[in-house]
């Protein structure tokens, strides 16, 4: 096994703990809505992933750290056994935070052992699986930011994750790039890591179209609100309108008006709304209605992918230590995940991974929409042009944003 | 206005009443689940469509037949005003059945007048709208069959819509046709009628693939059940598995086992299950799981469309007066709507119709899947190769079937 | 068997049909909320009661009219077999109205036969059971009025059950009668008919108290509303406040404000609110909050019973053919059922009837409150001083009213 | 102010913290069902009670410890302001456990100051309110035991609150005491502390009856189960039967069968079921069905009160440090709260306390049933013969037991 992989393992595993460092012990336990998970659970689950799919799979006569953890920390792998119901992850006071960190330490030690002494005949298979495990852990790092934010939001004391004064910048002006389309390749091809849902590379026909140069701003979204956007059914998808009414949506998640002034809850505090910054935390329904109101549409995932292929992977990622999108930044990569007009489905000839790993992505290909490009809570080395993120059209707690597109 | 259109109007309007002829007065009122509507409501709603979008739109100083009907019989046109909640259509004991038929007669008379005396400058617009209204009414004729079937199913007395002995035929053997794919045109182009969601015609790339020669049968589906299909999570989409468990699904809708013998509820009675006949009334979730179990997949909508374009529009439709699919018939058109692996979304450059008519199709382009080809409850002249039907992945009361496909 | 009983049977059975005479066929089917039942079901259920508990019980080798009716028309007698779920009574389009009337006619004929030719050794048992069946049918006659009213209310066309101009009278002034209390007898004793829940007679201690001379009026209740009664939590029981908020109550059921004028929906039409008439259709929660706001309390059931024992059984009942309470009438009997501050529980040494008849009353002795005195929809010969009606504290569709009481 | 009261204050306040001593930090946060509250919340709420109703009320220009706590720690006092929704108490990760203990310390200091330096003119009012606050805190001590038990139960690791081997004793034989009844006094009279709902003392008539000499045992309850008690609708109240089916009850809460052996979850571990020990954690519905199956009934609250009046207040309380009921103990006081057949309603001439304190008890007098006598989690000095505890008929997480009664 290469030392590089072992070092990468240490680095990424360490990052998960570092993300939780600002938390009080009490914060580790919360599950504010069924979609979020307690930080403690995330820390245990990603560890369970290594124990189950590396140690159990590749170590002879492996003895589990603690047998019950297979039930507690299994997320959704039906082929691995039954699991704590998702809605009840917040009920796990035990194992304690200390015990979960002890679990992490023990598994890290065993993993170090595996990485050092693996049978050469298995080295490649192990390396591939470890790489998957590390990407998996990075996904949960994103979830940690998202979930911590939501947990804090539900607390009337509005705790601050990382006190920080955000810079105020001007928004760049929105321009349109015309793109030719044609019969193009989409999806991942190559030897480096990509999820199964990015494969195989395949042909797709794109019509000529235009892409906006930056994300839509809070100011632009506020104009939609003030123009009655949340009251005009004709702007909305039928399911979106129903959802909006049922949940009383009047703004994106995390907005709040006090004494005529708009505020936004961020991981850096409850701040006056920055009109120049990208609008964040809208559902697909809201993004779609906003685009219709704007006289535009949302881009297809292949349209965005082809733009991303042309660009260096730079932007506003977690290494900025700023966990809220900013005006005036390059926004194709990072900043906010961009809603696309593409439902999340299988590419032609899609093959899920073998065995339990096949449950990772394929079984979610229904009722969700693709988002592209990463966000300010994405690790910089976790994104690719072909990366497909996906959420339900009503989800809002993820760091989602809106890039407009239009037909030529 | 052409006499042909007036005659077509009379023919199609008459058919709706004919479909309801076997009903008892009591049957007109039922809404067995929120998805179905009472026959009485269908009869009123399609009439309201003509009154609202033809008479109101084209007759000067038009006086509504009865003002409250705009509330009662509006289905989902937010731009036309508020409406009786969908879930409460079954609470309308008034207007009575007699009053609804009187409403139909009155509007038919006014429509005859409009068709005869329309201002020539408006003739074309009126003809286009009437044609839309007639296609709309034909859609509701399908719904009448579907809804009556479900209403009757919920009644422990199991009423029979049309007593009839169904022929027992052998199933043809399943063969596979290899199809080349390539860069093809999809969608409707031309002057004859098509819904906005079938337009515009556009290019789509298809990989080489194979299509099954006939629909999957009850016998084949029973093998899936007996192989534990409803108990094996790994065969299912995550949302489908959740739904299956929550609703306790163990078979398609309308199947029932008594004393070890399988039965199926049909519009012609509660009959022993015909193993050679196409399996009907599965959800997308079940169709998808069955296809995975079979080692195949469901076809894309463009794959089916290209097959349909090659064939004459013949098959098992309502003119057969048999409202249940049969073995041994041509099944590309008619018989059962075929689930596709394509979410229902907008074609490139899709433009909804102007005004309220834009609410007809576009706003449903989220969370639903396309079905193709028509069914035995479809009027023979209501189907086209480009016709896109759509339902939620959990819906089962529509006449849906399964055609397998696979990659080459 | 006495001819008197046979004649009574005919009279009461006929009354049920007469109550339904103003209905359209379409009205027979409706179940507007889970608490109500379709008129057609009531007509069938009371008939099933005679078939099951008289014909099945006392006729040798009795052949049921139709076996499935035992499932369809059983209300809640677990000992008699399974039953159509209560919430799905509105889904019975079959049997049709005609078939239900045919069922009634057939059972009436068989009952006539039983009453004429009963074995003398069984005559007394049969007479007792028939008497119970007739009181049962009278209870359902009340339910018919209540349920028809609610069904009509949910229809935007607001049908009128019986067109009639209600007289406008002055309210009598409210005076207080001081009553001594002491160690008194409560409950029924004697040979004539009473339900098991009225027995046995037993001692109860009452403190001195005062009873209001008439029911509280719409005008008085409006003052409560205008004083913020529905916004002041301190006036409400905790469960009531929760319920009020969850359901958005701001007035009694059937009130509606249009252009600043209050209206009330009645079986005689949608009428301007008569401020002098008794307030009707409040829940226990509202009655209790109103009493607290008034500085009074609701009476105990024994307090009302002792007042009722002193009075002749006269008042506003169904023979008035006015199905809405009026000002200026004697209101101890009839007019509106009066909420009491007494939960519905068993009297000391209470014994439910033997067998299935034991399910009639006893199993409901939890979570409900007693109402006393009958209402304008009660048959005049159906009420007694000891009669205990009971509803859940949130129920509002029954004809309930408020009589205030206070401690001395 | 007497030093005795100050010392009592310290003792009882200290006990709350002592109860939480065995908890991990993680355990302080859990709310396993809406009825339970997190231990952290209990500790804050009882402190808020002293801050709000003593310090705010009696200290001039009092500055709140932290203004937001009035929202977070208000339970249900509508007159004091709005509050964190009950179902969301588990979402409070902040204040942290440390902050809550700091809050307790600060308020204790201020309370000590108040108790020492109170204006003599207010001393009596303050003493009365402090006494109420201490009884309030003792109630929450019971809730702490109940809630911790339920929280632990929901965790698959089944944490143990206090490891301890429970003694195994024989059950005493069940005998019946005949009691004469008559016109008796019920309720509290005197100068010492009692809640408003125990007052005023008033007359009540009791029939002669018999009371069981001890609580019903697990063995007796198991016989009920094995006789089909949970499958026989005729034994149950209608609401109870519905609830049982909906929630799938087959045993009391905390029972579990593994490999044919019954176990019970206790605060001392997951133990084999002790057949001689009193059956605990049944709902009213189950207690009532069991009594009916036994051919007996549950006692009235006045029947139990009169028995309790004759006995010294001794029994199995918290000072035993055993938090699970035992066989062979005196059980009239302590051990388990006994369900009565009496709905929780106001005594004649009941007057709630003035102001916000009036919300303490009165507004819950609907839909609940009275339990009597205290339990093994009740502080020995917290119980009286007239003490009325109350729970909803479906509640099971409280330490409830069954004493049978019967008519003579
Ligand atoms: Fe995961
Ligand atoms: Fe329609
Ligand atoms: Fe009945
Ligand atoms: Fe409290």
Automatic annotation (TrEMBL), chains A, B, C, D:
Any one Gene Ontology BP term: ergothioneine biosynthetic process
Protein name: Ergothioneine biosynthesis protein EgtB
InterPro entries cross-referenced by the UniProt entry: CTDL_fold (IPR016187), DinB-like (IPR024775), DinB/YfiT-like (IPR034660), EgtB (IPR017806), Sulfatase_Mod_Factor_Kinase (IPR051043), SUMF_dom (IPR005532), SUMF_sf (IPR042095)
Gene3D superfamilies per record: paralog of FGE (formylglycine-generating enzyme)
SUPFAM superfamilies: C-type lectin-like (SSF56436), DinB/YfiT-like putative metalloenzymes (SSF109854)
Record organism: Thiothrix fructosivorans
Keywords, alphabetical: Iron, Oxidoreductase
Pfam family, one: FGE-sulfatase
Pathway noted in the entry: Amino-acid biosynthesis; ergothioneine biosynthesis
Domain DinB-like: 9-142
Residues in Sulfatase-modifying factor enzyme-like domain copies: 181-306, 322-405
